[in-house]
Specification:
mainly alpha
């Protein structure tokens, strides 16, 4: 003879009133669980939407801030470019740069320039770009750029990237050197006031970089057909 399950015996012994109470309790608990699940889903959706709206607001605010910064930077550059100091400086540097085509380096000076590129500049460049840079691609060739890079980049007593600390080169007796001694402080003030990373003067006719505040390897080179003619800087200058 089959025996009833213990739970069935318990249920069978309950009165109808007790069974109704259990049924109502189960229904109530089920309703509460369903309402909790629906509430959880609604709260989750509201939280996701609130987070999405907040991120969108941050994006819009940052976009506006960036646009304002770029507009301010453009206004600063235009203002500086229109200043008398920059206009006169550009004329002076361009004229004196072209006069450097008559300058030549001694074998010792040429060796010092090549040693700088081989031992200092190219190893640092190799760590920052893909492929292996070749010295013939970057070594200055024209008299003007060789002269400037020897006296203001290769033999600069300050570390590369901080060459702006050199206001006068004792071995550069050219008009360009004298112009630099007189005008470098003007551009240094502009860099400090506006927080620029560098200031470059580029001849609009030849795209020669006739002055750089930082004294980097672009100094004296041509952005038209020199080693940096394929850079974003050259593209912006041509545009």
């Amino acid at each position: 003879m089959d025996r009833a399950h213990p739970r069935e015996d318990v249920l069978n012994r309950l009165s109808i009133q007790s069974k109704m109470i259990l049924l109502l309790l189960a229904t109530t608990l089920g309703s509460i669980a369903a309402m909790a699940w629906i509430g959880y889903g609604a709260a989750r959706d509201a939280l996701v939407q609130s987070t999405r709206n907040q991120l969108q607001g941050v994006r819009v605010a940052k976009t506006r801030t960036l646009a304002t910064m770029l507009e301010s930077l453009r206004d600063q550059v235009v203002s500086i470019s229109d200043s008398r100091a920059v206009i006169d400086g550009m004329r002076t540097f361009r004229k004196s740069y072209r006069e450097l085509d008559s300058k030549t380096l001694s074998p010792r000076e040429s060796g010092a320039l090549e040693a700088f590129y081989r031992d200092t500049y190219l190893p640092a460049l190799d760590a920052a770009v893909e492929g292996t840079p070749v010295i013939d691609q970057y070594l200055p060739r024209r008299p003007a750029e060789r002269w400037l890079q020897l006296h203001w980049v290769a033999t600069n007593p300050h570390p590369y990237g901080k060459g702006f600390g050199l206001a006068e080169s004792p071995d550069d007796d050219s008009d360009w050197g004298r112009a630099h001694a007189a005008l470098h402080a003007v551009f240094s003030r502009a860099v400090k006031i506006f927080g620029f990373e560098d200031v470059m003067l580029v001849d609009a006719d030849t795209l020669d970089v006739v002055y750089t505040w930082q004294k980097t390897a672009e100094l004296g080179t041509s952005l038209e057909n020199g080693p940096y003619s394929n850079t974003q800087l050259a593209a912006k200058v041509r545009a």
